[in-house]
Amino acid sequence: MLKNYIKIAWRNISRQKGYSAINILGLSIVYASFAWGRADTRRQLMLWLLLPAFVIVALLTPLAPTWWWPTLLHPRLEGYFRVVNNNAVFSLFPASAYLMVGSFFGALLSEKDPDNQLLQWRAAGWGGALFTVAGVVAIVDWPRSVWFWIGPLAIVSWRIGTMLLLLVGSWWMLDGRRTSATSPLIVFGRTSLFVYWVHVELAYGNFSNPLHHALTLPRAIVAYGCLTLLMLLAARRWLRRVPGPLVPVHMRSDFGEGPAIHGRRPVVGI
């Protein structure tokens, strides 16, 4: 059975590049969860999350295109290290760094600070600083040898700074207002991981592959609006689901033994 699972997994990876994005997200979540569990102080968070992210962006991302050994791998596996000839959607470098940095700022924002206003301004300060630094770096005409190293840092800083500013803007927009649980902003916030996971397949998988680089700007905007509406409907349906056990019954080690699980005794031998 394990051999069949491996064959199926390899077939999916080799045929559909969209799976690389989902797998990279999963690997990044595993490490971020491990690092977050190991860190008890803010300094440890920086050591376990920010430092690896900096190494990925500042060193591994610029160097990955120069490595020769990934050419020995299958193109889909090479795509985990660098995107060449449309062999993947994202690569580990720098995509994994986004989740590490996001986990770091998420940990800061989740601290129980009695002064929420200070927390908001702190996040706005970080976002503004990253956005400004990235903008200054982008408008300067750097030599190619210098841009080789600082280019990835500028791009990642711009994206993270933008997301932090959007987060703070949403925070301020909702602060002091009565919001409904069905509000799109609340729904997307509560289902952000589900939305990201599903939209990867919709945006980068076989579903939309014929549309890539084939739409005009107005049509692309319309497609973006339709995808957003579709994800909102899917997210609301996801919230209305009946939550099941964290580990499916048929995958538990005590399956078929002992008392009934969740009020129902599993049936075996069928």
Give an overview of the whole structure.
By secondary structure, the chain is an all-alpha fold. It has two domains: 2-178, no CATH class; 179-241, no CATH class. The chain contains ten helices and no strands. Helix 8 (184-190) crosses helix 10 and helix 9 packs across helix 10 (217-239). The longest helix is centred in the middle third of the chain and has 31 residues, at 144-174. The chain is globular.
Mean pLDDT: 79
Indicate the overall shape.
Answer: globular
Beta-strand portion reads under 5%
What share of residues is helical?
55-70%
How large, in whole angstroms, is the Cα Rg?
22 Å
Instruction: Return the structural class.
Output: mainly alpha
End-to-end span in angstroms? 18 Å
Count the DSSP helices.
10
Domain module tally: 2
Q: Which segments are poorly predicted (pLDDT under 50) over 5 or more consecutive residues?
A: 260-270
Q: What is the H/E order?
A: HHHHHHHHHH
The counted number of beta strands is: 0
List the helices and strands and how they pair.
Blueprint: H1 2-15, H2 18-38, H3 42-63, H4 75-78, H5 92-109, H6 116-139, H7 144-174, H8 184-190, H9 192-204, H10 217-239
Quick summary:
The chain is mainly alpha-helical and 270 residues long. The protein has helices spanning 2-15, 18-38, 42-63, 75-78, 92-109, 116-139, 144-174, 184-190, 192-204, 217-239. The chain has 2 domains: 2-178, no CATH class; 179-241, no CATH class.
Can you tag this structure with a few keywords?
270 residues, mainly alpha, 10 helices, 66% helix, globular, disordered C terminus
